[in-house]
Design brief:
single chain; 358 residues; alpha/beta; Rossmann fold; 2 domains; six-stranded parallel beta sheet; 15 helices; 8 strands; 8% strand
Length: 358
């Protein structure tokens, strides 16, 4: 129910001159970008949470000893730097949809006193970026571009190699961020707004509520161009290689890594999957590293550490595999929607794959 439906004077567009009405689409675009950003961050955290549940079992079956740094099923620790509109919406979305327990989510902002609603929920809110980075497994940068250089200087000494920095600061390109942080484990989604923008992103729903709408959620799928906002699919490549880095850091041999990837990404099938699960796509090592490197890699050897900034800026063996394999795109879409509790028919998924390719 829209409480503002009959209250014209309280609507955003009230008082805007008629000649300026053409700019109102920017409001919808802003909201669409916010919804997509939060949805993709939620999907990534859900993957990491599921990975942390599966890793201990894989390490045990591989015969590897559980070291001090090994994941033992504890909760994913997420930090957010920035308590503005994006930081607040992201925190609430992660809290409700991953879901991340309040004690595993922390926010660092220059004005923690403005986050009283989150502190009442049990989330620690403070102003100490370095401490936040030293604690978290994933750090989301939700600050202004003008603040980023100072923040990078603060957090760089406490930034562990395995910590994933996920940047929403669109004005700062990946190479610049890599240089500022002296860090390679960085993800940064890039969005492009197309000319034929259709605003169905809503106005008064919060982000969590919007992602319960099947049409809106479908528009956030990585391969979907609905809604006029397109995600650069290189982000999805970065997600895959980030998972590989975690497995490498935990000492998981390549055979178990491959099994885990197939279980993690390809375990959800459409109800009408005509070919059957036996013929569904399966990952091979050469989908991620060159065939020449695979031949020189001993059977029990660990995979190399990947520079996520390079992955997102250049072609990888996974690039063509993700682009050309429609069945793989379908299964990743099934997984994405399943993570949000919404099923999808194969017919609709295939249509989205075709639309995004065109």
């Amino acid at each position: 129910m829209d409480l503002l439906e009959d209250l014209e004077s309280l609507k955003f567009e009230y008082g805007i001159q008629e000649e300026d009405y053409s700019w109102l689409y920017l409001q919808g675009r802003y909201r669409g970008l916010m919804i997509k950003a939060c949805a993709h961050a939620t999907f990534f955290c859900k993957l990491l949470h599921k990975l942390r549940v599966s890793l201990p079992e894989k390490l045990t079956t591989s015969g590897e000893s559980l070291g001090e740094t090994t994941i033992t099923g504890d909760e994913l620790k997420v930090g957010i730097i920035g308590g503005g509109h994006l930081g607040k919406q992201l925190a609430m979305t992660l809290l409700q949809l991953v879901p991340i327990p309040a004690e595993s989510l922390r926010i660092s902002t220059r004005r923690p006193e403005t986050l009283d609603e989150f502190q009442k929920l049990g989330i620690q809110c403070f102003y100490h970026n370095a401490n936040l980075v030293g604690w978290a497994n994933v750090v989301f940068l939700c600050c202004l571009p003008s603040q980023l250089s100072h923040i990078c200087v603060e957090i760089q000494p406490n930034l562990e190699e395995v910590c994933i920095v996920y940047s929403f600061v669109a004005a700062i390109p990946i190479p610049r961020l890599k240089l500022l942080l002296n860090h390679t484990n960085i993800l940064r989604p890039q969005y492009q707004c197309v000319a034929d923008f259709v605003n169905f992103w809503g106005t008064n729903k919060d982000i969590t509520g919007a992602l319960q709408d099947p049409a809106i959620l479908q528009a956030t799928c990585p391969y979907s161009s609905a809604g006029g906002i397109v995600l650069n699919i290189k982000w999805l490549e970065g997600v895959f290689y980030a998972i590989l880095n975690i497995c490498t850091a935990q000492g998981l041999p390549q055979v178990q890594v491959l099994q885990l990837l197939n279980e993690l990404f390809l375990s959800v099938h459409a109800e009408d999957c005509e070919e059957g699960e036996a013929n569904c796509p399966q990952f091979q090592l050469w989908d991620f590293i060159s065939r020449f490197y695979v031949k020189s890699l001993p059977q029990k050897k660990f995979l190399p550490w990947f520079d996520l900034t390079t992955v997102q800026l250049s072609e990888t063996p996974l690039s063509q595999h993700l682009t050309a394999n429609a069945a793989l795109q379908d299964h990743l879409t099934y997984l994405y929607r399943d993570f949000f509790g919404i099923s999808l028919s194969k017919e609709h998924s295939s249509e989205d794959s075709v639309d995004s390719t065109s």
